[in-house]
Amino acid sequence: MEVSAEGAPQGTGPVLVRRRSPRSLGLREMLKARLWCSCTCSTQRAWTLVQDLLPATRWLRQYHPREALVGDVMSGLVIGIILVPQAIAYSLLAGLQPIYSLYTSFFANLIYFLMGTSHHVSVGIFSLLCLMVGQVVDRELLLAGFGPAQEGPGPGDNSSTINTSAAVAGLRPQDCDQDCYAIRVATALTLVAGIYQVLLGMLRLGFVSAYLSQPLLDGFAMGASVTILTSQLKHLLGVRIPRHQGLGMVVSTWLSLVRGAGQANLCDVVTSATCLAVLLAGKELSERCQRRLKVPLPTELVVIVAATMVSHFGQLHERFGSSVAGDIPTGFVAPRVPDPGLMWRVVLDAVPLALVGSAFSISLAEMFARSHGYSVRANQELLAVGCCNVLPAFFHCYVTSAALSKTLVKTATGCRTQLSSVVSAAVVLLVLLALAPLFRDLQRCVLACVIVVSLRGALRKVRDVPQLWRLSPADALVWVATAATCALVSVEVGLLAGILLSLLSLAGRTQRPRAALLAQIGDSGFYEDAAEFEGLVPEPGVRIFRFAGPLYYANKDFFLRSLSSLTGLDAGRAATRKKERGLEARVSEGDPVEGMDLGPETSTAALVSTAAGFHAVVIDCAPLLFLDAAGVATLRDLRRDYAALGVMLLLACCSPLVRDTLRRGGFLGEDQGDLTEDGQLFHSVHSAVQRARARHRVPAATDSAL
After folding, report:
1. Which of 103, 11, 98, 116 lies closest to 55 in space, CA to CA?
2. Which of 205, 382, 473, 623 has the most CB atoms within 10 Å of its CB?
3. Residue 582 contacts by C-beta under 8 Å, 6 or more apart in sequence?
4. 387 in Cβ contact with 201 (< 8 Å)
5. At what angle do helices 266-288 and 299-314 cross, to 10 degrees?
C-alpha cells in the first residue's frame, strides 16, 4: 500500500510504508498454547483465579471504613426495609408462600456480595421474573391436579376433568401438598435457569445479552407490567376469578373481571384506594424532594405496618372476608435437591428467564459502572447472577436478578460497595427469625397495591415512544410490537417477537445502507457527500463511491444497484453487450457499439468510458465494516466488468480486516507479489484519485503522440 507525499512532514520526501506480513499461528499451535497456559498451575495463578471468581476478596482489602461504611450501612438498612414488604408482595406474582421470597432475598444478597463486580446493583426478587415463575408454577399445579385454577369459587370452574385426568396419569406427588409442589416447581425452574447463566459465563458469552436491545427490554418491561397489573386487579377488588393461563391471558382476565365486578369486596376496595393514594403520594413526594431527603421515605413499610395493625385489630378477615397473607413461619427449612423430573419439564421455560435476568443484570451493572467511573465484567456478572440462582435453588428459593428500583435507592442513599448487601441480608434475616409472624393479618389487597405502585417506572416509559420514533422508527416499532405482544399474547411470545424484530431491524439496516457519490472539498485532500453538501468540486473523469455498511451476501445486489444508479453505468450489462458483439479480444473496425463505429479495443474502451463520463471508480471503504465470500466475489466481478470497459476500479481506506479478506479471497492476486495490492489499495481517497489521474494521462499522452 502506498503513502503519498501529502501526509509527509514538511522538509522530508515521500515515505514508503508497507504493511507487515501477519504472523499467524496454526490451529494446532494456537490450541496447544492456550491449553498449556490454562493448565499451568502456581500459587499466584490459583490466588488470581480465586480473586476473579470472588471479587470481594480483592476489593475488601482496599476497603476504607471512614469513607464508605456509613453510606453502605445506611443504604443496606433502607434496602432491607424495602425488601421485606416487596418480598411478601411479590409472592403473589410467583404463586408461592411469602417465606420463600424472604429466603430468596437473603441468599441472593449474600452471594452477589461475594461474586458481583458491580458496587451498586441490588440483586433480589424482580417483578417480571416473579410473573414468569408464577405462570410456570400455575401450569404445573394444574397438570398435577392441585385444585381449581382459581382462588375460590367463580365462573368457569372446569377443573374436575383436569384433576381426575392428572391423578389417573400419576402426576400428583404423594408426599407433597399444593404449596410444597409449587416451591418444587419453582426451585427446579430456578436451578435450570441458573445453570444456563453459569454456562453462558463460563463460555464467555456475556456479549449475547447485548443483542437484547434497550427498546426491546423497555417494551418487554411495559408489556409485562400491563400483565402484572392485570393479574393484581382481582386482589385490589377482592374478586374471586380464575387465574387464566396461556395466550391472551390479559384479555381473558379483563373479561372475567367485568363479569365478576358485582362480587367485589367493599372492604378490599376501600383499603386498596386508601393504600394506593398514600403510596402514590409518598412516591411523588420522594421524587420531588429527593435532593433534600438523604433517605427515601419508607412509604411501603409504613403502609404495610399500618394496614397490618388495622386488619388485625379490626378483624377484617373474620368480619368482611378480606384475604390475608396467612401464617408466615420463622427460621429456615432443611435444604432439598430440586426434582430432576421437574427440571426436565421446565427446560424450555427456563430459557426466557435466564435471558431476561442476564440482560437486565448486565445492562444495569454496566450503566451504573459508567456513571460512577469503574468497570464491570459481563461474564463474571453472568456467573454471579447464575450462582444467585443455582445455589439458593437448594434452599427453597426462586429466580432472581438485578432490579432497577432498588438499585436507584441504593445509589441515592450513599452506597459505595456491595457491603450494603450484607446489611440488607441481615435485615431480612431478622424478619426470617423473629418478625415474619407479625405479617399474618396483612391483607392481600395491600400487597397488590405495593406491586402496582412499583410498576410506575415501567408504565411511564410509554411517554418515551414519540421521541424514540423521531430518533429511530425501527426501534420504536420493536418497542411497540414487543409490548403489545407481551400484553395481548403472552410474555414468552412477546420476548421472542422482540428478539426476532430486533434482529430483523439490524439486518435491514445493514441490508440497505446509505450509498453516495463524493466530491472534493476545495483544494484539500478531503471528500464528502455531494448530495448533502454544497460547494464541492467533483473530480472530472472519476466517480468516488461510498457504501456506508458491510458488503455481504444479503446486500451485494443493493450495492451493485446503488453503484450503477449513481454512476449511470451498469458495468455488468455493458460488459455483457460488448462480449456478445465479439469484442472479447479485439473489435473489428466497423462493428457498431451503441450505434458507433469502434476501432481497436483500446479505442472501444475509451469510447465506452467517455460515453459513461468517467474513466475510474474509487470506492471509499472506510465505512466497509467487513466482507464475506459473496462480497469479495462481487468486487472481483465488478473489477473484471470495469476492466472490459476501460474503467479502473480502485479501493481506498480499507481496514486491516478488509485487506486480509481481499487477500485471502484472491482479489489482490497474491501470486503477483505486492504490485497488485499497491496498485489497487490506497490509504486515502485523495491518493486513489491522484493515481487515477496519473494513469489516465499516460494513455492520453500515448494516443496524442501516435
Report:
1. 116
2. 382
3. 588, 591
4. no
5. 160
- Tell me what the pLDDT averaged over the chain comes to: 79
Domains of the chain and any CATH numbers: 68-147+176-508 (no CATH), 515-579+611-698 (3.30.750.24)
What is the per-residue pLDDT across 430-477, written as a single tens digit (0 to 9) for each? 988 888 788 788 888 888 888 888 788 778 888 888 998 988 888 899
CA angle 418, 59, 374 (to 5 degrees): 75
- Kindly state the DSSP code that residue 21 receives in the 8-state scheme: P
Locate 580 and state its grid cell: 456478445
CA distance 573 to 641: 9
62 Cβ neighbours under 8 A, 6+ residues apart: none
DSSP string, 222-274: HHHHHHHHHHHHHHHHT---B---STTHHHHHHHHHHHTGGG--HHHHHHHHH
Selection from 314, 443, 407, 307 nearest residue 299 by Cα: 307
Q: Which H or E element spans position 650?
A: strand 648-652
Q: Tell me if the pTM is above 0.85.
A: no
Which H helix or E strand runs over 541? strand 541-547
Phi and psi dihedrals of 519, rounded to 5? -140, 160
pLDDT band at 36 (very low <50, low <70, confident <90, very high): confident
> Within 10 A of 225 (CB to CB), how many other CB atoms are there?
27
Cα 628-630-634 angle, rounded to 5 deg: 115
H or E stretch covering 546: strand 541-547
